[in-house]
Amino acid sequence: MTEPRYDVIAIGNAVVDVIASCKEELITELQLNRGGMTLVDEARADELYDAMPPAKEISGGSAANTLAGLSTLGLQCAFIGQVADDQLGKVFRHDMRATGIDFDTEAREGEPATGRVLIFVTPDGERTMNTFLGAGQYLPAAALDEDLIASASILYLEGYLWDPEEPRRAMRRAIDVAKKAGRRIAFTASESFVIERHGDDFRAMIEDGVIDILFVNESELATLTGEDDFEKGFEMIAPKVPVLVATRSEKGAVACAQGERAEVLAEPIERVIDTTGAGDQFAAGFLSGFAKGAPLDVCLKRGAIAAAEVISHYGPRPEADMKKLMEEKL
């Protein structure tokens, strides 16, 4: 097996986040799924955008956010995702490359436009996301650079992108390429609704040993297992994947790797500003340790530090000097 060129390559949605603070009443008025993620069409996206207070636009997407965190922590990363040949697509490509992430997937001509996520943040820091996937849901297997995929130590897959058929086929092909090259597959479930729609796929991949590192939150674990008791659900999945990581918001996180279990408390912060990207940056912190062979408890601690940093400000990507922050906190 050749030495990997990249630490992590991710396949995910290429979207631009549009983030605005709002009053609780607006969530009700617009009939939004408070605290959740809802897929919307372009017309609904335009309607919600028109109803938003002044907003901030930041390149996002779950897996792309995780790579941004990993890159700031010094790891070599590349991204595969689909943008349109439009202004938002150019913004997204620039932001990824400016963060030190290789991103060379060709832009898609014509409609639909580059995807965007309209995020309403209430005073308690909770985010309500409304996602127009746009061009991202048309990532074809033909767009994959298989040599690139084979050159990464870890292939990181975003559950959100499992929903549309075309990128799902691309991700299945990428799994085959990575496995043949002897690489690890990391998978983030992304959201309970994705598991409700594709749980049979995910459970089959777990049973077949396809997934090497699985990231879930407490709600996703319950949906995956059908078990509301966290410990029972965790014990159902832990023996079936080499590494299981379950986040529990303010209760911290738990991980199990080859029978070894570790837990971490959430990092204290003065105020939660915006929970957008918390899970993405937890995964970045965890993988930044895991990819370098750090102990399981240290990987969890790194995840907690990264998650705490991102929820202390608006936006899904780090703003602090993450290398320095890790040195100070560890």
Key structural traits:
UDP-N-acetylmuramoyl-L-alanine:D-glutamate ligase; single chain; 9-stranded mixed sheet; 330 residues; 14 strands; 12 helices; globular; alpha/beta; 5-stranded mixed sheet
Brief digest:
The chain has twelve helices and 14 strands. It has 330 residues and is of the alpha/beta class.
Structure in words:
- With 330 residues, the protein is α/β, with parallel strands linked by helices.
- The chain has one domain (6-13, 61-84, 96-104, 138-329): UDP-N-acetylmuramoyl-L-alanine:D-glutamate ligase.
- 39% of the residues lie in helices and 23% in strands.
- The protein is built from 12 helices and 14 strands.
- It has helices spanning 24-29, 42-51, 62-72, 87-98, 146-150, 165-180, 192-207, 218-225, 230-237, 278-290, 296-310, 322-329, and strands spanning 6-11, 15-21, 37-39, 56-60, 77-80, 102-103, 114-121, 127-134, 152-158, 184-188, 213-217, 243-247, 253-257, 260-264.
- The strands form 2 sheets. A 9-stranded mixed beta sheet has the order 6-5-1-9-10-11-12-13-14, with helices on both faces.
- The two termini are 33 Å apart.
- The relative contact order is 0.15.
- The mean pLDDT is 94.
Poorly predicted tracts of residues: none
Q: Outline, from the CA principal axes?
A: globular
What's the architecture, going by CATH?
Answer: 3-Layer(aba) Sandwich
**Tell me about the biggest sheet?**
9 strands, mixed
**Helical coverage, percent range:** 25-40%
Average pLDDT rating: 94
Radius of gyration: 18 Å
Beta content comes to 15-25%
Determine the CATH topology: UDP-N-acetylmuramoyl-L-alanine:D-glutamate ligase
Order of helices and strands: EEHEHEHEHEEEHEHEHEHHEEEHHH
Q: What is the name of the CATH superfamily? A: Ribokinase
Q: Calculate the terminal CA-CA distance, rounded to whole Å.
A: 33 Å
| Strand order, sheet with most strands | 6-5-1-9-10-11-12-13-14
CATH class: Alpha Beta
- Count of individual beta strands: 14
Number of helices: 12
Number of domains: 1
What class, by secondary structure content?
Answer: alpha/beta
